[in-house]
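Team,

Forwarding the record for the chain on the shared tracking sheet. I've put the sequence and predicted structure together so nobody has to dig through attachments.
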Amino acid sequence: MRLPTREELEKRYNEYSDNQLMDILKHGKDYQSLAVEVIREMAEQRGLSITEDMSSLVIKKRFFPLLKDIESVDKMFHSLMRILYLFTVIPVVLTILSYARDTENEFVIWGILSVCWILAVVFLTKYKSKIWVISIFFLYICSVAFGVMSLGGKFSFNKISLVIYIIAFFIMLYVLSYIFVILYRRNKN
């Protein structure tokens, strides 16, 4: 009888649910070692917490998945940085809009926030330091507060636009938090 290859096992187990993978790991002694190894890797990629004691295995999703190797960590960091660079467009656009509306005070404040934001993201990319994440978070809170103050009285928020703003706020919060966690884990190891 021919044993399945790694590729065949990966294809087969990719269709399994989290509970099915964890159940196989609980009964790992009944499976070939390659199958258990493949399933363990898949569980880690899905962000499932795996304890060494397979009899008391508990499924636990992670809010910030653990990444196995330094290459994966670097890829995730760069992907999150791309999102941060996209978010730098917001204060730049608001700077341009305040210039077009001929509101000098708003133009100056948005200009300063834009330049600081861009510099902080560039320095975070270059130095990979948690202080730059905190700086970007502070700039983000200032931008949101100033945006609400400057635009809040002029526009009536409908439910859809309010939902979009809230989703964008939480996406940015998650991205900054995950970058902070990545840098914390990197410095810890």
